[in-house]
Amino acid sequence: MSQEIYLTGITTTGTPHIGNYVGAIRPGIAASKDKAKQNFYFLADLHALAKAEDPDRIARSTLEIAAAWLALGLDTDNAVFYRQSDIAEIPQLSWMLTSMTAKGLMNRAHSYKAMLQINEESGGDNPDKGITMALYTYPILMAADILMFSATKVPVGRDQKQHVEMARDIAQRFNHHYGEVLVIPEPVIDDGTALLTGLDGRKMSKSYDNTIPIFSSEKQLRKLIMKIKTNSLEPGEPKDTNGSTLFEMYKAFATPAETKAIEKRYLEGIAWGEMKQVLFEYINDHIQPARKEYQRLIDNPSDVEAALRHGAEKARAISVPYLDKIRYAVGIRNLG
Ligand code: TRP
Questions:
Q1: DSSP secondary structure string, 167-211?
Q2: CA gap 319, 193 in Å, rounded
Q3: Which of helix, strand or coil describes residue 203?
Q4: Ligand 1 atom nearest to 163, measured from its CA
């Protein structure tokens, strides 16, 4: 069995928040240091276009996400860290895959179906309202991201599992038609990673605007943590850790022993105000060392640009010759 290749993408919309941190960034950075693994991480800025976001926001988000991963210690020597749009071979491959993708497969994508349903429920007469072709064919571009680097393992959140399965389907059909050219990938869903609840009690997500940005200033971080929803139990009353957003966040950052100690304090009736202070101090101490480097990178975007270009060079050393092979397979050939 040849070496596993891990690959994952981060869409460049929004500011990186602590839900992204515990769910993707922290495990990704740990894996980037593992010499036995080959890891690809990229900024999916072409995917970001699918929702027609404000251009300045996409550019800003790209800088912030890249700076966050770098400041928090991504090993860019061992892993390949790049920007999707720097790899021109990806959209080319995407087109070839589009020719091998049944329209019916795209019709079944959960993300697309969810939009149809919203349109239906709102009672309008256009079920396709607000749905761009980029949104509709999003899974094909994602398949190209994955297949371009022959990834065998694709760590993603539960909501992206179907997309990786579609990449498998598309690759299988391609191979059936053109010969064994593409490597069939597999989704990796880590049930152990924490899913954080946001400020309002719903899942922490940029689409709900209920996040805590990783690199908030100390003042902002305190303010946001003070806003987290709790119940109305008084100081001294025993409290349940189950369903407590504060506890869940603490647990996502702290060691098991520290978490046990806090469980005891819940039983003893720790005041919510105090728990918020404890959580603030814990997260702040955890993030503090990287905060300066993050700010330095934000103030020196050319350093981030250089890191991404270096990554693109490493990536293109693979994608350029491989795309040649794929072009040949589909009949796009040098005529002599
Ligand atoms: N669609 C993914 C998300 O929203 C991001 C992504 C784009 C991705 N291309 C990918 C993830 C390829 C894994 C592999 O989270």
A1: HHHHHHHHHHHH-S-SPPPEEE--TTS---B-TTSSBP-GGGT--
A2: 31
A3: strand
A4: 1
Q: Is the CB of 146 under 6 A from ligand 1?
A: yes
With a 6 Å cutoff on the Cβ, whether 137 touches ligand 1 is no
Distant-in-sequence, close-in-space partners of 192: CB < 8 Å, separation ≥ 6 = none
- pLDDT number for residue 53: 80
Residue 255 makes CB contacts below 8 A (sequence gap 6+) with none
Note whether 139 and 115 are within 8 A (CB): no
Helix (H, G, I), strand (E, B) or coil at 102: coil
pLDDT of residue 19: 92
Contact 198, 205 (CB under 8 A): yes
In this prediction, residue 85 carries a pLDDT of 98
Cα of 45 from ligand 1 centre, angstroms: 10
Q: Which whole-number Å values give the CA distances from 231 to 212, 228, 235, in the listed order? A: 20, 10, 11
pLDDT for the residue numbered 149: 98
Question: Which SS3 state, helix, strand or coil, does residue 329 take?
Answer: helix
Q: Is the pTM of this model over 0.85?
A: yes
Ligand 1 atom, smallest distance to 155 CA? 13
3-class secondary structure, 249: helix
User: Which of 5, 6, 7, 10 is the best mutation target for the ligand 1 pocket, counting ligand atoms within 8 Å of the beta carbon and taking the most?
Assistant: 10
**Displacement of CA 88 from its chain's centroid (Å):** 21
- Give me ligand 1 centre to Cα 3, in Å: 22
Residue 12, helix vs strand vs coil: coil
Residue numbers in the chain where pLDDT is lower than 50: none
Which of ligand 1's atoms lies nearest the C-alpha of 84?
9
Residue nearest to atom 6 of ligand 1 (CA): 9
Strand partners, 203: 197
How many A from CA of 49 to the centre of ligand 1?
13
Q: What is the pLDDT of residue 221?
A: 97
